[in-house]
Amino acid sequence: MRATHIARRRERTKRSTRATRRVALGVGILGLLLALLLAPVAAAALGATGLLAYVRALPDVDALRDLPARFQPSPATTRLYARDAPDGDGQRRPVLLHEMADPRAGGAGWARPAELPRSVLDAIIAVEDPDFLTAPAPDLGRALLDWARAGAIRQSHSPIIRALVDTHLRNGTPAAPDDSRRALGDWLLGWQVSRRFSRGQLLEWTLNTRYYGHLAYGIEGAARLYFGKGAVELTTGEAALLAAVARDPAINPFDQPDAARAGQAVVLDAMAQQGMLSVDEAARAAAESLAFALPPWANAAAPGFVRLARRELEAILGPERLARGGWQVETTLDLVLQEQAACLAAGMTQTAMDAGGSACPARGHLTLPEDADTPTSLAVVALDPATGAIEALVGGADELAAHPAGTLARPFIYLTALSQGYTAASQTLDVESIYLQAGRPYSPRNIDGDYLGPLRLREALAAGQAAPAVQVLSWVGVGRVAETMRALGLEPGAETPADLTFAERGFPAGLLEVGHAFATVGNAGARAGIALDNAAPRPATIRQVFDAQGQEVYAFTPATQETLAPELAFLLTDMLASDEAALPDGRRAALAAGQSPDGAGWAIGYTPERLVGVWANRASVAEPVWQALMTWSLAGQPATEWPRPVGLRQVAVCKLSGLLPQRDGATCPTVNEWFVPGTEPAATDTMQREVAVNRGTGRLATIFTPPQLIERQPFVVYPDEAARWAADRGLTGPPTEYDTIYRTPARAGGAAVTSPEPWAAISSQWSVDGSAGGDSFSYYRLAYFPGLLPEAMQVIVERAETPVEAGELGVWDTTLLDDGLYTLLLTVVRADGTFDEVGIPVTVANGE
Q1: Residues 407, 408, 413, 415: what is their CA dihedral angle, to the nearest 10 degrees?
Q2: Terminal-to-terminal C-alpha distance of the chain
Q3: Where are the alpha helices (DSSP H) in 492-578?
Q4: Contacts of 294 (CB under 8 A, 6+ apart)
Q5: What single DSSP character describes residue 389?
Q6: For 301, how many CA atoms within 13 A lie in the half-sphere containing its CB?
Q7: Quick one: 662 exposed, middle or buried, by C-beta within 10 A (0-12, 13-18, 19+)?
Q8: Which residues contact 136 (CB under 8 A, 6 or more apart)?
């Protein structure tokens, strides 16, 4: 028998065995459930002994009756603490920052459906299961036959019943996708629940145990949290919004008000479709002005920070565990730094621009430009780059929300270029340029209308000019820049332009997200923070958690993820740490500043110890506020430098071109630049040139110019794309015309060239004819050089010691030469060292 036949037979046997087991298990369960309804003897008669143990191991559905006791509001609170200023012995004592309480505390507690407005019940039924109150329970016999035949049950329970099973009988433990035994068990639990309890009872449990976010369990807690009223007072519009939040607590009106409103519209539409509301009633409910209560953290010393800390604490402990209260939580907030950041943000008014006093010393470091506009919206963040811990956070939900980054996107463009093999010395051109986008011309414009000409990548980033940023973006493409941003934790989003305008318009992002991205760059490319559920590290707010008995249950250990090569991170940091970014005490700091199209400003800067980010809806104040807070917060601390990766190489390059200086010839001003091994320039500079000029005529000197009139002068030869820019600024290049040549003698003493003739066009292999001899002849040399001045001489015949009379002096191979003007030079040397010489100008024209 062939191996294939054996394999097929085994497969048929396996399929038959699996089907037999499903039938046996189905029959067993049917017998077992009949036993539950009739008598245990019947189950035994059907051979369900093994299954009986399986079903008995399922959770007891009667545990649902304990929900009212389990979901009683907790009187215990959870306290969050910040670090205060050091006391006399240098200790930083904890200061109460916020107290978390169960939203149901002091309220009506358990809500009875009969006491609630009809719209509260209708809203959750309409969006969860419109047939919940009337649909019969699934047929058990058909379900078991389906499972016995196919290993799956086609009938499903109401989503409301499934949620009760998953949340309260399975304790929220998810099932594996291919776990058929778990699926069967869940279905049997749902069947028991649907048979044992009334629909009204199930609805009551659902309304009182659903999680609505921010520790609000049940409709009563949600009503009090979001609307400051009891559930019996909810309007139709409020009930619909809470029904949407019950489906996804993340889209609550405190965190995502627009999404919550959109969810409300979905619920109201479902209610109208089910006839629970008329179309007009649904429209009126949608148009209803909702008066939300203040968030629980609204009056905290750092409301934006507390909001994040509550969310992180909930992720660490779980909402139900956290709601029990009694926790003592040490946060990462530096209360002193927070107060100074808040003081600077609040002080951005004309009356508060005096020197800082004892309450706000950071303001004493604030220097605003004379034309600074007063902002109406400002946010500040301070992070520890090494750990990702948030040390200060100022701003409400609007200020900390996503805003257009504008020109703040440019550091990510230059970082992408570095990752693609470009270097800090690569030359860009800050000149007027035109690009075609979708067939239409696009010309980037610098804000001040001025252009700086050739700039190295480092200089272009520091200058903040649009033209070179767009040029570099054209090299790497928006797609690659987006990949760089994602690696740093930023998501460009659908609103991000996919063309070259990205360099000016940027992408939408929040201050905390952008700050964390730059903190990653400052941390040698390692993204640090808290990582929950195997997610990427994000900024942390919780340092330690203790239970009511003082036992530590959580301690923050920074998670790190290398998202950027340390060499690239160092190069970008070094480029951002320009002289202009230095703090007043001379300390080096890396600073990325930007302006969005709507006039808002960004300033994200860091040292190895701290990152501070500022966003303001008036661009002129962002950088001064950043500098003031950084200067104050680092005062008295020793300055440190970012560690440099050992593999980087430092090379001296020409300041203008970024290329290597010429070994012989024109010298160029040089700067030292860092390079990743393998990216160092190999070419030599050609912009800086020394040219021989007839100082009398100002024209290029030739072999016929009197030596006493020849003078070597330095010139800069700009790229063709920058020629117009240079001309507009009076930056003249070297002369393009040679001295006037009145005659070109073909004979001088014993040296004569008869072919080629002066000014002839030659190509390929050319025979040079003439004479070389005379009295006391020693030898002759035949050579050529570009142009008309004997520089960069190349030899055709080095030393020919046999005189020639009207014959071939040598063969000039021009095949590898660039077309252009050259001079053929014949030199006849006598025994006493004197010589005769004749130069013949010719044009090499191999391309013709």
Answers
A1: 150
A2: 80
A3: 502-505, 511-522, 566-576
A4: none
A5: B
A6: 22
A7: middle
A8: none
**CA–CA separation, 519 and 609 (whole Å):** 10
pLDDT band, very low/low/confident/very high, at 41 (cuts 50, 70, 90): very low
Q: What is the DSSP letter of 274?
A: T
What percent of the chain shows pLDDT beyond 70? 91
pLDDT, one tens digit per residue, over 221-259 is 999 999 999 999 999 999 999 999 999 999 999 999 999
Q: Check: CB of residue 377 under 8 Å from CB of residue 397.
A: no
Q: What is the pLDDT of residue 199?
A: 94
Contact 274, 126 (CB under 8 A): yes
Cis upstream peptide for 86 (omega within 30°): no
Q: Which of 41-50, 199-208, 330-339, 673-682 has the lowest mean pLDDT?
A: 41-50
The C-alpha atoms of residue 460 and residue 255 are separated, in whole angstroms, by: 39
Helix (H, G, I), strand (E, B) or coil at 420: coil
Report which residue type is found at 280.
D
Lowest-confidence range among 179-183, 281-285, 329-333?
179-183
Handedness of CA 31, 33, 38, 44 (dihedral sign): positive
Burial class (CB in 10 A: 0-12, 13-18, 19+), 17: exposed
Instruction: Give residue 358's pLDDT band: very low, low, confident or very high (50, 70, 90).
Output: low
What sections of 557-653 are H helices per DSSP? 566-576, 619-634
- Sorted by sequence, the CB contacts under 8 Å of residue 433 that are 6+ apart come out as 443, 444, 467, 470, 471, 721
Per-residue pLDDT, 27: 45
Rounded CA separation 735/705 (Å): 15
- Separation CA 95–CA 90 (nearest Å): 15
- Which parts of 477-528 fold into alpha helices (H)? 478-487, 502-505, 511-522
**DSSP, residue by residue, 124-174:** HHHHH-TTTTTPPPPPHHHHHHHHHHHSS------HHHHHHIIIIISTTPP
Residue 424, φ and ψ in degrees, nearest 5 = -65, -15
User: Token pair 């100002």 is at which residue?
Assistant: 698
pLDDT classification of 665: cutoffs 50, 70, 90: low
Question: What's the one-letter identity of residue 731?
Answer: L
The CA distance from 211 to 384, in Å, is 34
Which CA distances in Å does 443 have to 361, 453, 460, 501?
Answer: 45, 16, 17, 9
Q: Cα–Cα distances in Å, from 50 out to 27, 47, 54, 271, 826?
A: 12, 8, 7, 47, 111
Give tens-digit pLDDT for 730-751.
Answer: 998 888 888 877 777 878 889 9
The sheet with strand 542-546 has its strands ordered as: 92-100, 78-86, 328-334, 542-546, 552-555
On whether the CB atoms of residues 627 and 583 are closer than 8 A, the answer is: yes
- Measured in residues, the chain has a length of 848
Up-side HSE of residue 384: CA atoms within 13 Å toward CB?
17
Task: Give the pLDDT confidence score for residue 39 in this predicted structure.
Answer: 33
Strand 747-748 versus strand 710-716 pairing type:
unpaired
Residue 1 is predicted with a pLDDT of 38
pLDDT in tens, 79-97: 999 998 877 777 889 999 9
CA separation for the pair 726, 705 (Å, rounded):
29
pLDDT at 438 over 90: no
Nearest to 604 by CA among 530, 521, 531: 521
Residue 769's identity, in one-letter code, is: D
Q: Is 665 left (phi over 0), alpha (psi -120 to 50) or beta?
A: left
Burial 319-347 (b: 16+ CB within 10 A, else e): bbebbebebbbbbbbbbbbbbbbbbbbeb
CA dihedral 381, 387, 388, 389 (to 10 degrees): -50
Tokens of 154: 């086609």
